[in-house]
Write a structure and sequence with these properties.
single chain; alpha+beta; Fructose-1,6-Bisphosphatase, Chain A, domain 1; D-Maltodextrin-Binding Protein, domain 2; 2 domains; five-stranded mixed beta sheet; about 35% helix
């Protein structure tokens, strides 16, 4: 499909979605939402023929974030940044997991990009991987104004605008009822040799909020985990590893816009961390309707 048609299709999706937000969007918000939607669509088209293939997992070197860059990362980033260049409505500074930093003097916007969150999954052909995008009017996690995540395998899209709410293409979903117990806990614990908690301790984090069907799942994409909290698919996310803002900034806005919350496990301020490529605060996040104070206290006791 021609590039122009990709961009036009992305704009149409974004415009249709505006009616589902809780308030009307400003012209800046509309323009940036259309831009990141176009970026996510371009990334999806670029990675589709590479997921789980030998060509897609060809090693190219190391990216700006320090991790190994493979062909699927490069292809996604190249397509997404080309879409950004064509559709950005204003000057911006950029941080992207592969390219690194592009600073524009006097830019009033900051863009955080992870072209493939869940690269190991994408490399092996496992489904959970996505484009994670955030647009901020100041360079911190708490200043993200527009967020967008594109699920590469399933085609779902998730978007949020600060103060305007959250939308998702997963329209068939229903929120857990008031007082519903915790049933699905998502865990992103990384490499097993870097953790010392006992598996049974995870039940202590939930304490009196869990039900008989409590289960733990690990999917390998922090951005999608946060989307699942915002959608009500999952209840709690435990991420006891330092995380990068490019992975979580947009998803954290989605959780906040749906009435959920998040807090660091090491006592730092999760929301004031800069939009950069450093691995920073481990954290816990939860959907709306849960007691976040108890979750934070219990999670810190287990992991710290």
């Amino acid at each position: 499909m021609a590039v122009g048609r990709i961009d036009e299709r992305a704009r149409e999706v974004a415009v249709v979605s505006f009616g589902h937000f809780e308030r009307g969007l400003t012209s800046d918000e509309q323009a940036w939402l259309a831009c990141v939607t176009a970026m996510g669509g371009a990334g999806a088209l670029a990675v589709e023929p590479l997921l789980g293939t030998a060509a897609g997992r060809r090693v190219l070197g190391r990216g700006g974030g320090g991790d190994t860059t493979i062909e699927v990362d490069r292809a996604a980033e190249e397509a997404m940044l080309a879409a950004l260049d064509r559709t950005a409505p204003a000057a911006y500074s950029l941080v992207s997991e592969e390219l690194g930093y592009v600073t524009t003097p006097d830019a009033g916007w900051w863009i955080a990009v992870d072209p493939v969150d869940g690269s190991l999954n994408a490399k092996r052909g496992l489904e959970p991987s996505c484009a994670a995008l955030a647009v901020a009017d100041r360079p911190t996690v708490g200043d993200v104004r527009v967020a967008h995540v594109r699920d590469y395998a399933r085609g779902h899209v998730f978007s949020a605008v600060r103060g305007a709410g959250f939308i998702s293409s997963r329209t068939e979903l229903e929120w857990p009822s008031v007082g519903a117990p915790v049933e699905v806990v998502l865990l992103e614990a990384g490499r097993p040799d870097r953790h010392g908690f006992a598996y049974g301790d995870l039940a202590q984090v939930i304490r009196g909020q869990s039900g008989q069907e409590l289960r733990v799942r690990q999917i390998g994409s922090l951005a999608l985990c946060l989307c699942h909290l915002a959608s009500g698919v999952a209840d709690v996310l435990l991420a006891p590893v330092p995380s990068r803002a490019v992975d979580v900034a947009g998803g954290l806005l989605m959780v906040r816009e749906t009435g959920g919350g998040a807090a660091s496990l090491d006592g730092s301020d999760l929301w004031t961390q800069p939009l950069d490529l450093e691995r920073r605060a481990p954290f816990v996040a939860w959907r709306r309707g849960l007691d976040g104070r108890d979750l934070v206290e219990a999670a810190r006791a287990v992991f710290y």
